[in-house]
Design brief:
There is one protein chain. This protein is of the alpha/beta class and 261 residues long. Helix content is 43%, strand content 18%. It contains twelve helices and ten strands. The strands form three sheets. The protein has a five-stranded mixed β-sheet with strand order 2-1-3-10-4. A three-stranded antiparallel β-sheet has the order 8-5-9. A two-stranded parallel ribbon has the order 6-7. Helix 2 packs antiparallel against helix 12. The protein is globular. The protein starts with a helix and ends in an 11-residue tail after the last helix.
Length: 261
Amino acid sequence: MPILRAAVCLLLLAELAIANAAGAPPIAAAADLKFALTEVAEIFEKESGHAVKLSFGSSGNFAHQLEHGAPFELFLSADENLVFRLADQGLTRDHGVLYAIGRLVLFVPHGSPLQADAALSDLKAALADGRVKRFAIANPEHAPYGRAARAVLQHAGLWSAIESRLVLGENAAQAVQFAVSGSSQGGLLPLSLASAPAIAQSGSFTLISSEWHTSEPLRQRLVLMKSAGDTARAFYDYLQKPAARAIFVRHGLVLPNKATH
């Protein structure tokens, strides 16, 4: 596994080097931004004439890669503490900007015996009567949405009962794949992914109160790396403009108050 991980890392670095050479700065983004950020980037390219190279994955893995020299020029993290960690190491231009607050939903695919209720009362009953065999979340070890999902399940008193039945996605997007494919009876997923038409038509979902994961608040922060060039800086600025913020809102992300920046 260490050899495979090293090979994957080398392949990633090679791809990023090609992106740099082509003039499209590589951007690391949390998996929950897959639909929203892709849309923003397409509009940015049309308006500016400059493209960016988007890579989506778990924020924790990206932070680790950046600490080990990955040449991303901009990082959009689902956990602002990872940005602060990079800033403390002198790898970023500053401490960045809080661009959104994420939300979690309970997603239930069509045909599942589980009901999508915000109180998770049916999930509790389903764990007791055996209706739930597998349940999807992102891996809490390196995915902020996974940690928030764990906090929700702990708040509901379900963690010990459900832990052995969890299917862990490498990131939030893979957790969505597990939930939508029918390989699990449901999952705790980002609203920004579950609300996308391609996903929403595969099942039903209900919003989970953010009060249930106050220890993992999903404060999402973007930051320029020290290596950022002109296009990355322009994209960073564009992400804070009304047009981009409106797209984030449409995809289920909550805009932070200016006082929380």
